[in-house]
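Quick one: structure tokens for this chain, please?
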Amino acid sequence: MIDLARDGDLWIVTLNRPKKANSLTSEMLSRLIEIADDAAGEAKVFVLTGAGKVFSAGADLDEARAGLATSPLWEDLSGKIAALPSLTIAALNGTLAGGAFGMALACDIRLSDPSAKFFYPVMKLGFLPQPSDPVRLSTLIGPARAKMILMAGQKITAEEALSWGLVDRLVPATDQKEAVVELSLAALEAVPAHIAGIKALIQP
């Protein structure tokens, strides 16, 4: 359910559970954490994407009811991705929802299919978001817009997400692989210490 394609220093991780809208199980989250750990010493570019028409609907419903919605695995994963000393790209092939926000927010760059929707229904579901998600979301789009998503439960379009700064470029899912390669060229030609050094200067 998690596919890893390694092309030299370019790692592409695909959520591959399209019949369930790439909803995430604890097993999938654990595997993503393992891959992020491995990538820390090997990948110059780390890419997250999904199979099918949805990036991820968040937590698997059955496991969410059993406690996955508030599991520390989400925060562990987003923290691992944020700490990677590489260029990280979320190639959002479709809608991003719920707990899956964390891994996308932790990336350096976010591409989105123009048809994607973005929503994080924690107010409706009665859960608190993972601790770092509101902070990263607010940093990207500002406190009021973060509250529109997290508190007012608004579902926003890809065009809104682009204008707000939640995503950086709209790219149809069919063209995202090519776009990722183009964005990766400079980092793939650099030495790892240079990539990490520039990233450290940008990040607070």
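The chain has a mean pLDDT of 96.
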